[in-house]
Amino acid sequence: MKTTIAALLSGIIFGLGLAISEMINPARVLGFLDVTGQWDITLLLVMGSALLFTLIGFPLITRKAHPILAEKFTLPSKTSLDMPLLSGAVLFGIGWGLAGLCPGPAIAGLASADPSIALFVAAMIAGQFIGIRLERKLT
Amino acid sequence: MIEPNVAGGLIGGSLIGIASLMMLLLLGRITGISGILTGVITWNKADGLPWRAAFIGGLILGAILYQVVFGRPLPIQMQASGPLLMVAGLLVGIGTRLGSGCTSGHGVCGIARRSPRSIASTATFMGVAIATVYVTRHLVS
User: Which of A3, A78, A96, B25 is most open to solvent, judged by the fewest CB atoms within 10 Å of its CB?
Assistant: First the structure.
């Protein structure tokens, strides 16, 4: 129960951050990616300020024996660069560049009740199911 | 250059960073939104379905809260539509699954963990996205 409430609160703060920073806006995101056009630095400011917190905070937190509400930290253990990682990043990059939406802003954007965002999210969910099948074939 | 949203960017980015710190400090989890979503859509009860569903619901609630607090609609200007938007969604879904993460998990959290995989992933998807926008905005149209 406590973990559910903690995750809900974190999600609300994250979603509010996406809206206030305008990262929920595909025009802002594509404006940043359009480096040879009328470049928009906002995404860099968002990522920089988020990283300021995580770069300093993460090492301090993982030094603890365990998180406050769980018995242990659940962190990714892989360290090698492999084909699924890089080919996945390429496909994600193309999709991100086409629409200006990545998973967080797309999900938060559902709050606008814009049917085109719902269409994107539905396609993204279908894509994840395809990705799960591909993962099984590759490994 | 387009007028940047400096205050919104810095405040919103800080909130994103703080939310990611909370997830690690309280639950011991990385805030990787594509991965959290996978757990929900596959209804994986063995791996923390309640907190995952709560976080996803929270994202939407946060965006609703923005509209209530500021009394204005969300700043969303869609740039793609119809079939192109569906193709983009499919690619984002496949790519984030195959590549084990997206802008939040790799970009904000993975880089903070100094993970070589996350640094390589972020550099790759950002570079490819920049190239994609160059092609669609300056070569094709």
Answer: A78
Out of A52, A75, A98, a domain closes at A75
Binned at pLDDT 50, 70 and 90, residue A138 comes out as: confident
Domain segments of chain B: what residues?
6-140
C-alpha span between B35 and B58 (Å, rounded):
15
Neighbours of B49 (CB within 10 A): 15
The ipTM value here is 0.97
Query: Which pTM was predicted?
Result: 0.97
B76 DSSP assignment: -
Q: Cβ of B130 and A97 within 8 Å? A: yes
| Number of domains, chain A | 2
Token pair 């802008």 is found at B103
Structure tokens at B82: 């119809």
Residues of B in contact with A35 (CB under 8 A): 130, 134
Please report residues of B whose CB lies closer than 8 A to that of A136.
none
For residues A70 and A99, state if they share a domain: no
Residue of A nearest to B5 (CA): A42
Are residues A15 and A53 both part of a single domain?
A: yes
Answer with the one of A47, A75, A103 that is the final residue of a domain.
A75
Q: What range does the domain containing A138 cover?
A: 77-139
Question: Of A28, A128, A52, A118, whose CA–CA distance to B93 is shortest?
Answer: A128
